[in-house]
Write a structure and sequence with these properties.
alpha/beta; 2-enoyl-CoA Hydratase, Chain A, domain 1; 7 strands; about 40% helix
């Protein structure tokens, strides 16, 4: 039965911009943005290619509190260059994570929340973007020794490319029905393998493979929530209280490789088969 009261009071998370999403998670009056738009930390490379840059390079970094617990919220703007990461935006994220590591070394238990709306490396800054994402991944691994790193993939931009690996390194991963997660985006797969293999315009098919419901049912994300600000925030709070997981998903390589070895690549695997494939005890 539909809860009319809930529907009337539900507030969308994905309709917020990157800055509003970050602030919606934090305790009242605790938000302090680092290197905000007025700092004009923008890409020096886009103008050279006749592309209009953005004054925060599409990355918002806000420190604050969630239920009085110190956090840094890193929010990627999927509306700017598809959320792609170049030198500046990548350095902002890596630097914020590294500062959180330093906080923990000083007995300030800062954890990180990553709001991931990104296609991965910015093609116009390919090598610089790759280097930045490598630094981000290294910083996540270091920080999660002290505190959980919580990833959220909520909007239709999804999380792809090198940043999908960063998502896989997170201690906990939260997804919505609208969110998508995959190493390669649909257009890239279609371009390389052909439309018969992967039709990027077939939205139900795409979401059945990489969507939030499928990733959760396959055990590749930890939570599946509605597009609701309060649900997203409460799930983050739950993981903050839960602390570090006993086993990080990214340490389960042998388990996942054993499952992938069972796939018959002569036929296209169905979503239900993928779910069944990953259902098994992880050790």
């Amino acid at each position: 039965m539909v809860d009319i009261h809930y529907l009337l009071n539900k507030k969308s998370f994905i309709e917020l911009d990157a800055r509003e999403r970050a602030k919606s998670l934090l305790d009242h009056d605790s938000a302090k943005e680092l290197l905000d738009a007025f700092s004009c930390m923008m890409s020096p490379w886009l103008l050279k290619q006749n592309i209009v840059p953005q004054s925060d390079d599409g990355v918002v970094i806000i420190k604050g509190l969630i239920e009085k617990h110190p956090v840094v919220v890193i929010s990627i703007d999927g509306n700017f260059q598809g959320g792609s990461l170049g030198e500046v935006g990548g350095a902002k994220i890596a630097g914020a994570l590294e500062l959180a590591v330093e906080d923990n070394r000083k007995n300030i238990p800062t954890l990180a929340v990553l709001l991931l709306e990104t296609g991965g490396v910015r093609l116009q800054e390919a090598n610089l973007g790759l280097a930045a994402i490598a630094e981000i991944q290294s910083a996540i691994v270091e920080l999660r020794q002290y505190q959980p790193v919580i990833g959220v993939v909520a909007g239709s931009v999804g999380c792809f490319g090198g940043m999908s690996i960063a998502a896989g390194l997170c201690s906990y991963l939260i997804m919505t029905q609208e969110g998508r997660l995959g190493l390669n985006g649909p257009q890239v797969i279609e371009q390389e393998a052909g439309v018969e293999e992967y039709n990027a315009k077939d939205r139900p098919f795409i979401w059945s493979i990489t969507g939030g419901e499928q990733r959760f049912a396959s055990g590749l994300s930890d939570a599946y929530v509605e597009d609701d600000r309060e649900q997203v925030k409460q799930k983050i709070i739950e993981y903050i209280h839960q602390g570090l997981p006993q086993i990080q998903r990214s340490t389960q390589a042998a388990f996942y490789l054993s499952k992938l070895a069972q796939v018959d690549t002569s036929e296209q695997i169905l979503p239900v088969d993928a779910r069944t494939l990953y259902l098994g005890e992880q050790v």
